Amino acid sequence: MIKRLHIRNYALIEELSLEFADGLSIITGETGAGKSIVLGALNLILGGRADTKTLFDQEKKCIIEGRFDVAAYSLQEFFSQEDLDYDEELIIRREITPSGKSRAFVNDTPTNLKVLNHLGSTLIDLHQQFDTLYINNSSFQLELLDALAEQRGLVSNYRKQYARWQRVGRELASLHEAAAQARREQEFLEFQVNEFEEAALEAGEQDTLEGERHRLSNADEIKQLTSGAFHFLTEDENSVSNQLMSISQRLTPLAAGDPQLRQLYERFEGLRIELDEIAADLETFGDGTEVNPERLEEVQERLDLIYRLQNKHAVTSVEDLLEIYQSLADRLGQFADLGGNIDRLTEEQAQLELELRGTGEKLRAGRQRVAPDFSRNVQRQLADLSMENAQLVVDFSELDRPGPHGLDEVQFLFSANKGGRLQTIKSAASGGELSRLALVTKSLVASAMELPTLIFDEIDSGVSGDVAQKMGSILTDLSRHHQVVVITHSPQVASRADRHYFVYKQDKEELNRTITRVRELNEDERIRAIATMLSQNPPSDSALKNARELVEGRG
Questions:
Q1: pLDDT tens digits for range 211-265
Q2: Which residue of 271, 279, 494, 551 has the smallest Cβ count within 10 Å?
Q3: Cβ-count burial of 212 within 10 angstroms (0-12 exposed, 13-18 middle, 19+ buried)?
Q4: Secondary structure class of 273 (helix, strand, coil)
Q5: CA contacts within 13 A on the Cβ side of 194
Q6: Residue 323 has what DSSP assignment?
Q7: Helix pair angle (318-384, 293-313), 10° resolution
Q8: What are the Cα distances from residue 375, in Å, to 145, 322, 394, 413?
Q9: Distance between CA 409 and CA 403 in Å, rounded?
Q10: 318: which residues sit within 8 A by CB, 6+ positions away?
Q11: 453-457 and 484-487 as β-strands: parallel, antiparallel, unpaired?
């Protein structure tokens, strides 16, 4: 509920504050005194667009600040999502500079108009004569029926089920899209994987094959060289081995008596023995090398396959190719998992929809149960407000698939005149008719439904006498469950006030201009103001008496 509205430097308002309380607050005043200006200022802190033309003093900043008690609105999660500090007393401030720059603050934290709009719709239902936001809104109409059917828990359960069903549906749609993409990729991946599997690559084989190709390509030269080296080192009469053996035999006795020479001898012997082993290895290597053109061709073909795959995948080793193969194989495996996940989620979605439809059927039954009585009560109260021939019918239509509010879509169809065609409220109701319909509708659900602060601007336009009296009674009943603020020209409505504010103009000589002021009236001032509304200014004695009777007779 709104507790305080402070306005500075706006339109005809230099500066003023309005304190609000529970119950029914009435705002009256002369035509043109500035009642609508107060609403315009309030609209700014609810996210309305700013205009520097509305500045009282074009050289100064305009500030509109509202204080709200939000303990009952469950806004903690919204504040957390918007990174705002939560407090049960909410302060919304809007500033407009002479340059046209607009800033908004929630509990002193800068924010944007989107946040203000959300908070505004939660905190204030500003019903002006042609404002059809709520009464024409299908989701509000469903919420209204659910409140009358006392199925808040069922609605909450449905919304949770719907959220889960939607989430699974989104996941399933994403998987189907991935599957479609997979089908386009799978054939190519299978070709690549098959190519790798046919290649049957082994780690390290490239080095082995390249070594074998080298030997096979140089087999004749290798055999000649190794054979010649073996004979030169060991087989010839003057072979290196024989000459080294001769030196060894001569060194042996000399080395026995000289430690330093013995070390050299040992080194020499090691070299001689190593040379004999090398000669033997050369012979063995040469004997094992064969001239084999067929094998060389096989090795070259295998290497050509490896080189082609490396070039294709832009790598330089068989190990890199094996990693690519594993990656491709894993992706193919995911396609198989994709199909399994689609089957699982399809089954889950079907089960969730079955449960959702079950809950939706219960919601439908509750709504259809209360709709006839609601229609009759609306028509009865409208008849009391001089709309004897008004009709309201709740029209249900079944949705093709579950929606966010159930299995149904509803429309309130309305006709104000006898024999008139039932149409949507927006098409059928005039401004005054719409105002009365909105008032009646909200009064019928006041005790069952959480509504924000209700502000009515000239909802009693075009009515007077007994009709205005009955409208005042409805507003009084409504204010027992909600904070209600009414701007009115009707004395019968004004007499119902718990608090009465009077808007008036005052000439300010030092500024050489007229300003708007607001003051709360005491009991005697209220009676005089209502008497003036009944007759003239100054009011007659009979008007004063009538006004007192109206005030004392409220209840």
A1: 878 777 777 777 778 878 778 888 777 788 888 888 888 888 888 878 888 898 8
A2: 271
A3: middle
A4: helix
A5: 6
A6: H
A7: 30
A8: 11, 75, 7, 10
A9: 9
A10: 201, 202, 203, 204, 205, 206, 306
A11: parallel
Contacts with 526 (C-beta within 8 Å, 6 or more apart), sequence order: 494, 497, 500, 551
CB 396 within 8 A of CB 412: no
Q: Which residues contact 101 (CB under 8 A, 6 or more apart)?
A: none
pLDDT digits (tens, 9 = 90+) for 454-469: 888 877 776 777 888 8
CA 256/CA 246 separation, integer angstroms: 17
- What are phi and psi for residue 66, nearest 5 degrees? -120, 140
Q: Closest by alpha carbon to 23, among 542, 498, 435? A: 498
What pLDDT does residue 134 have?
67
The DSSP 8-state label assigned to residue 509 in this structure reads: T
Q: How many whole angstroms separate alpha carbon 414 and alpha carbon 196? A: 73
Question: Can you give the length of the chain in residues?
Answer: 555
Give residues with Cβ within 8 angstroms of 452, minimum separation 6.
Answer: 73, 121, 122, 123, 124, 125, 482
Own/partner pairs, 192-196, CB within 8 angstroms, 24+ separation: 192/328, 193/325, 193/328, 193/329, 193/332, 195/309, 196/309, 196/321, 196/324, 196/325, 196/328
Name which of 434, 498, 479 is nearest 460 in CA terms. Answer: 434
* Average pLDDT value for residue range 43-49: 86
**Can you tell me the distance from the alpha carbon of 484 to that of 482, in angstroms, rounded to the nearest whole number?**
6
Helix (H, G, I), strand (E, B) or coil at 310: helix
Contacting residues for 474 by C-beta, under 8 A, at least 6 apart: 381, 439, 440, 443
DSSP 450: -
Under the phi-then-psi rule, with left for phi > 0, alpha for psi from -120 to 50, and beta for the rest, what region is 141? alpha
Q: What is the pLDDT of residues 103-157, one digit of tens each?
A: 999 999 999 988 988 888 888 877 654 444 567 788 889 989 999 999 989 999 9
The amino acid present at 466, given as its one-letter code, is D
The pLDDT tens digits for 288-332 are 777 778 888 888 888 888 889 889 889 888 899 889 888 888 877
Alpha carbons 349 and 293: distance in angstroms, whole number: 66
- Report the SS3 class of residue 63: strand
Structure tokens at 551: 């005030």
Parallel/antiparallel/unpaired status of strands 62-69 and 24-29: unpaired
C-beta of residue 479 within 8 angstroms of C-beta of residue 498: yes
Amino acid (one-letter) located at 337: D
> By the 8 A CB rule, do 362 and 152 touch?
no
The DSSP string of 192-253 is HHHHHHHHT--TTHHHHHHHHHHHHHTHHHHHHHHHHHHIIIIISTT-HHHHHHHHHHHHHH
Q: How far is CA 140 from CA 145, 146, 313, 323, in A?
A: 9, 10, 61, 59
At position 175, the amino acid (one-letter code) is L
Q: Where are the alpha helices (DSSP H) in 398-482?
A: 425-428, 431-444, 465-479
pTM exceeds 0.85 for this model: no
